Amino acid sequence: MPYTFRPAVESDVQAIADIYNASVMAGGATADLTPRTFDQRRAWVESHTPPYGVFVVESEDGSIIGFGALSVFYDRAGYDGVTDLAYYIDPAWQGRGVGTFMLDRLLTEALARHMRKACGIIFADNAGSIALMHRFGFTQFGLMPAAATDSTGAMRDMSYWYLDL
């Protein structure tokens, strides 16, 4: 695969914001209802201090085509070692293996950072992400009906997934 996975840097923030905001506006992938500003995305990236982190995937030409994060699952010390996964792919690159590449690398990073569990919280009708959860051996551990709306106003069920690392 001609993709590169690396930690995000300051110069990636605009691409991260653009990819995320495309997902916000399309609906079906995030419960944010309005686009995030550059400064909001920069603060989000900066909030990911070790052992957590934000990462990008570059195409062969160096363009940022996706980003993902290992985030705090819950801000109580007893949950250290559990990470919440998130990943977003540029719409032009969806369906081309970037999500699979991203999730594989995120899980590798989680292991290297001594995480013991990875969790995904996903709209239950997000077929692409649900397929990735199955592909990587995640177990669904919950479903919250009508938990969130997206930017289109659609009410979404939330599915909860985990993987022992």
UniProtKB/TrEMBL annotation:
Q: Which residues form a coiled coil?
A: none
Keywords of the record, alphabetical order, are: Acyltransferase, Transferase
The GO terms this record gives for MF are:
acyltransferase activity, transferring groups other than amino-acyl groups
Q: Which Pfam families match?
A: Acetyltransf_1
Highest taxon of the lineage: Bacteria
> Where in the numbering of this chain does the N-acetyltransferase domain appear?
3-165
- Protein name, per record: Phosphinothricin N-acetyltransferase
